[in-house]
Automatic annotation (TrEMBL):
It comes from Mycoplana rhizolycopersici. Transmembrane segments: none annotated. Residues 77-218 form the XdhC Rossmann domain. It comes from the Bacteria. InterPro entries: MoCofactor_Util/Proc (IPR052698), XdhC_Rossmann_dom (IPR027051). Gene3D superfamilies: NAD(P)-binding Rossmann-like Domain. This is XdhC family protein.
Length: 233
């Protein structure tokens, strides 16, 4: 690879931006395509499919052959609330190949005994997210039912363009949440991105079943994400 392209590739990966290294096999020409860039024709369609699947491979477009080397930032889940659902979700996320962190300032809940082997931070989300910012390859799951804990990270997730934003609660609870966030200046169109009630509708009842429903919805959101969504700085 050209040293200039290699430096750009490494810079994009450090910044947690998805890119594909496209190499034309016949001529050896190569380039870097960032997620969201527009590439016309069949090659563009193949590139979009590769971004969504995350799989590298050979493609043929307009009589030419290309190798698409896909570099996606590791998708991660940030859970606000060290509750029973979070315990189950940590297990399901690991099996599904997603990194997961739990943030909860309530030290009675956020204990190593309850979350052994999990990236657990017993602090306020406002403080944690300053040093561990959200991004487009992060799913935010808010499950405390406490506006003092949940509302700030929900706003941050929407403003950061997280590919999934979900919040636990009944429709009545979510309606009050929407009123609070709207009063705080979050645009209505942005608020409509919040998945609530959280998770796919599979009739889940137990914490483990709810965790499965949430994980399924996260996977669906990631694999069907809008590749042309505006990337915020």
């Amino acid at each position: 690879m050209d040293p200039i392209l290699l430096r750009r590739l490494n810079a994009e990966r450090r910044a947690r931006r998805a890119v594909i290294h496209v190499t034309e096999l016949e001529g050896g020409r190569d380039r870097i395509v960032r997620e969201g860039d527009t590439v016309a024709g069949p090659l563009g369609s193949a590139i979009d499919a590769a971004f969504l699947s995350g799989k590298s491979g050979l493609v043929e477009a307009e009589g030419r052959h290309f190798f698409l080397n896909v570099h996606l930032p590791p998708a991660r889940i940030v859970v606000i609330g060290a509750v029973h659902i979070s315990q189950a979700l940590a297990v399901v996320a690991k099996v599904s190949g997603y990194d997961l962190s739990v943030i909860d300032p309530r030290t009675a809940f956020a204990t190593e005994e309850r979350f052994a082997g999990v990236d657990l931070v017993a602090d306020w989300p406002e403080d944690v997210l300053k040093v561990r910012p959200l991004d487009r390859y992060t799913a935010l799951v808010a499950v405390t039912h406490d506006p003092k804990i949940d509302d700030f990270p929900l706003r941050q997730a929407l403003e950061s363009g997280c590919f999934y934003v979900g919040a636990l609660g009944s429709r009545k609870t979510h309606a009050r949440r929407m009123e609070r966030l709207l009063a705080a200046g979050v645009p209505q169109a942005m608020l409509e991105r919040i998945s609530a009630p959280i998770g796919l509708d599979i009739g889940a009842a137990s914490p483990a079943e709810i965790a499965v429903a949430i994980m399924a919805e996260i996977i669906q959101a990631f694999r069907r994400r809008n590749l042309r969504a505006e990337e915020r700085p």
